[in-house]
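<discrete_fold_record>
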Amino acid sequence: METGKEISVFAPASVANVTCGFDILGFPLNGTGDKLWMKSIPEPVIKIKTIKGFDLPLDPEKNVVGVVIKKFMQDMHIKTGFELSIRKGVKPGSGMGSSAASAAAAAFAVNELTGKPLATKDLIKYAMEGEKLASGNAHADNVAPALLGNFILIRSYDPLDIIQLDAPEELYCTVVHPHIQVKTEDSRMILKKQIPLKKAIEQWGNVAGLITGILTSDYELIGRSMKDVIIEPVRSILIPKFDEVKSSVMKAGALGCGISGSGPSIFTFSQGEKNAAKVQRKMSHIYKTLGVDFDIYVSRINKQGTQVL
């Protein structure tokens, strides 16, 4: 492979689970994410030069980007190496796919620099290696949306079966990230291992309704399907003012509200930008009153995924 080639890529933040779709549904956001610069070098090593934005390890064995690139190099029999720098735009522990954005950026960039031997969809399994390092679980509901764009349904993990769903044009997402940390591995530990059949049936119905609503641009169906009877009741106790935020935004006209990933971020869907902005003001007011610092975003569903800058 020719050395000295350079590339810069952007991978977006993402919302996983999407209420009832635990580990099988996700979508990316516009405007916020990670930027990665990568250069091919003669030595068969991985060098992380700098990470800006947040304090993360430069050791490639302890960073998701290093794990992703290493696995790709092994499988593709790459004999040269890579030097890279990262600008983190997604805070670790935010519930907005921080590790996934870096993992997706790394998989996409190394594939581009090596002549694109794989289709973007085939890079998901490499980005999942980064998720495994970050949370102990190789889930795809953040990395697949970050790479591909649009709504993503993971029909199966073994074998991996990824389905891309086109987002309704008027569907907007508002996400608030209160500045507290909830680690994915911790939030998984508190989940119940067994589910009553009655709740499982209710959850399956909501997943089917949500997918149908997305495919048919039926906003009312999307809203009434955004109900999680299994995960949210357990995880919401870790998030300050979750119930108050949810009640407030629903009264303000949101279609639905839920936990973004493992939290502490909370997301809502709205039909139209005006409604999403109204929800944004409600969310902001609650956290300002609480005295908790926060970031807040309004975005359509990102349809591009990871891309070259």
